[in-house]
UniProtKB/TrEMBL annotation:
Region (Disordered): 102-144
Bias type Basic and acidic residues, positions: 112-124
Name of the featured protein: YbaB/EbfC DNA-binding family protein
Domain of life assignment: Bacteria
Pfam family, one: YbaB_DNA_bd
Amino acid sequence: MADQPDREALLAELSALSATATSDDGAVSLSVNTDGVLTRLRLTDAVSGMSPTEIADAVLRTYVAAQRESAKRTGQLLAPLGSGGYLMDRLRWRVQFEPEPVPVAPPAVVPRADDGKVLKDRSSDAPAAPPPAGPVPDDDYYGKGMRFEQAW
């Protein structure tokens, strides 16, 4: 058992492991720990010219790159223990994972009414229901079953 790694030293290295990745355009930089959990996220001013979909895609792709690096380094640390088992299978999966491309759709055109408003105020189209005359007793309210309108 002399060739087995020191357990405490291995745990300390795994706890200290951090992998950092930066997007190709430098807009996104992030770090993950040995489990691939996000520990740091930084966005540069370059994201101000990007759409929300483009920002999300850059973050996701950078996150996957950092997780791959974390999985590779974790696998290297655990290699002396053997290459079988659930943990090593998960690490291999993380290294090979490829996110699906996110299609960037053009902005939706919202048809406008004649008056230029997106939504028409229809509150005056139908008469409002009169408020209940006086308080409604609990027995009456609960006796009619579930209601989806306000009780008051």
